[in-house]
Amino acid sequence: MQLVGRIERVPGRAPAVARITTDPELPIPLRGDELLLLRDDRAYASEGFEAVLRVGDGLRAGEIAIPISLQYLQDGDIVRLNLEGGEIRVLYRRASNHNVLFFTERCNSRCLMCSQPPREIDDGYLIDEILEAIPLMDPATRELCITGGEPMLLGPRLLEVLRCVQRFLPETSLHMLSNGRLFAYLANAQAVASVGLEDFMVGIPLYADVANRHDFVVQAKGAFDQTIRGLMNLARVGVRTEIRFVIHQQTVGRMVETARFIARNLPFVSQVAFMGLEMMGFTKGNLEALWVDPHKYGETLAEAVEELSFAHIRTSIYNLPLCLVPERVWKQTRQSISDWKNIYLPVCEPCVRKDSCAGFFASAPLRYSAHLRPFTL
Q1: What's the pTM?
Q2: Distance (Å, whole) CA 338 – CA 70
């Protein structure tokens, strides 16, 4: 699924964040934040709309043609229309449970397998867009994910977004991905907790039970100690946490030991997720040092899951297909890959368990297991 499309440039027009409507009869007073999307060849009055988009033929003066790849857009979806730059970008899809608020490309870690390599740039406009988009979102939105880069680098602007979510989406579950290092400062944990979000969790990676291994994976000296302090500070102020463990060559050897470490030292975490590798960003360049066939670590994964389950810590397996996971831990597998980048390989075509299988990232064809097998009747 494409989230970005090219459109004809219109010089002198500032970018706009607006919501899609397919109702050409929408009352004029309600049109200010709306983009009218048309799919037929009829002419409609466009007064009051932010702009008029059209898929297919029949383009009229003043209308904007959008690519066929974006014809899935529906009422309530939110896009950023950049006429000056000739781009339309999807920010939110009303019918999806995989909406992401991308905060920044900046980060204070350089993880070997980072799927979004950090850049030191001024991208504050991303927060401005998010603050424009949140009030337009459906209040019934089930969940949102905050990601980056490292969201905590934004300081007060992060709190601004959290308060905006609390105001406009009070029933929405909010999950923030962070490396946890800046939560080593208790004041940061207290500031986030003070917003008072009802359904909020911070997902933090822990790649080993020993400092040298974790610090090597994130390429930051002292990161292990900061992360552990961050997890404890969040627990201290009542913010729920999830620990994420991405499985690859550099972490798999400490997987069971890390599970035991969590059970003994961090029993307050809300959940632990063991995650398959996404082959994007830095992973591509480091693939030979990272790739390990999931078939080889299946039993080790099951042992780690069982260690945590025995300690009554909720545990999940993300991003791995069922056929590569021991059956005794199938109940911990989740369909975790965002719908816009979730695929199934040709070998999966006859499989009768696809509806309950996580499938693969769109990047999977770069390297995948030789032990994939479809389940048949």
Answers
A1: 0.94
A2: 17
